[in-house]
Amino acid sequence: MNFLGRAQALDAADPLAALRDRYLTAADNDVISYLDGNSLGRPLKATADLLDSFVREQWAGRLIRGWTDGWLDWPGRLGDRLAAVALGAAPGQTVVADSTTVLLYKLARAAVDARPGRRTILLDTDNFPTDRYVLEGIAAERGLRLAWISTDPAAGITPEQVADAVDEDTALVLFSHVAYRSGWLADAAAINRIAHAAGALTLWDLSHSVGSVELHLDTWAVDLAVGCTYKYLNGGPGAPAFGYVRKALQPELRQPIQGWMGHRASFEMGPGYEAAPGIRAFVSGTPPILAMVPLDANLDLLESAGIAAVRRKSLLLTDYVLELADAWLAPHGVTVSGPRDPARRGGHVTLTRPGFEKLLEPLWKRGVIPDYRRPDGLRIGPSPLSTSFAEVHDGLAVLRDLLESRA
Ligand SMILES: *Cc1c(COP(=O)(O)O)cnc(C)c1O
């Protein structure tokens, strides 16, 4: 069977194939292959309808009454939904708020303050830039030291590396669950055990895992986590982030942006800050309700598909990417810079080759949209619910043709 035939057979056997029709295509669509679901997911048709009816009915109709009708509860309500559908977490531990960067700051600052006397934050060199910058700021603010684990940019953080680096001075360890560059899927449960044995807290960035791989935050004994809702959760550009704080830790942690929405009684307008009980204390200001509307539609779909089925399809999609990369692209000097082992592979595959930068524009012109990461990486991130195998085939065929025509 040729590769197109294989894509068609995989599509025919895909139990989630019909869900692709739930996504919106622009009237003047010029995209034949969207391979960047790990950076910005596509919108659902239901999202457009929900936003329209929200503006017309909820906003225009309820006006200020909307806040007490329910909007004020959305950070916790959506957090609990997300926790049940995608995080493997019990209710009362997750909020939707802020951006990933801001929530990361709030949780990391709270964590280091809860381990006074410990002076080190442990992270790895391939962590996402915003994570590194935020921790750099916190270290300066609190007089702490950053300890770096050098990770192979084509792989990722391992329990052995953490065991070698963590000690009685470590307050916090922060890693990405799926590395943004290589797609390496870290063993969160094992790393948590090692960090906890040394008395450190753990904070996981789930931006590249949520909605594409199975998460079991409660079972894995994760202390803290943050992540985006605009990647595999298709929440829309700049949609708010989510933060998870393990129940048992909540009374112990105090986050630094104490705003009125995290106050015990927001509308008493009292003289001093008194933290709300539970997870609400991690909210700071007015929730971005409009930007939260799409999340419900996406969680409805994810709930009906089931995250286990999504992960199964994701692995089949990236298997197929690897197959095409080996057959078509390797002869043109393209290498796979990431894990082939499905147990360590997240939802995307990174291909590297010097000069990829110059291919980005011609790819876009032909309606093929992968993700580019400096200096020479193309990330192929087929979002499982919105991408067909034929779409992967067509996109990588264009890439192959471009490489051939330049050879
Ligand atoms: C995309 C991403 C972010 C983005 O943070 P924002 O505050 O939304 O800009 C953070 N961390 C990781 C690992 C990401 O992949």
As residue ranges, the low-confidence spans are none
CATH homologous superfamily of the largest domain - what is it? Type I PLP-dependent aspartate aminotransferase-like (Major domain)
Q: Which CATH-level-2 architecture of the largest domain? A: 3-Layer(aba) Sandwich
Instruction: Assign an overall shape.
Output: globular
**Structural class by SSE content:** alpha/beta
Beta-strand fraction estimate:
5-15%
Strand order of the largest sheet: 2-8-7-6-5-3-4
Give me the strand/helix succession: HEHHHEHEHEHEHEEEHHEEHEEEH
CATH topology of the largest domain: Aspartate Aminotransferase, domain 2
Class of the largest domain in CATH? Alpha Beta
Count the helices. How many? 12
Q: Which bin fits the share of residues in helices?
A: 25-40%
Oligomer: single chain
List keywords for this structure.
alpha/beta; 12 helices; seven-stranded mixed beta sheet; Aspartate Aminotransferase, domain 1; binds pyridoxal-5'-phosphate; four-stranded antiparallel beta sheet; 407 residues; 13 strands; Aspartate Aminotransferase, domain 2
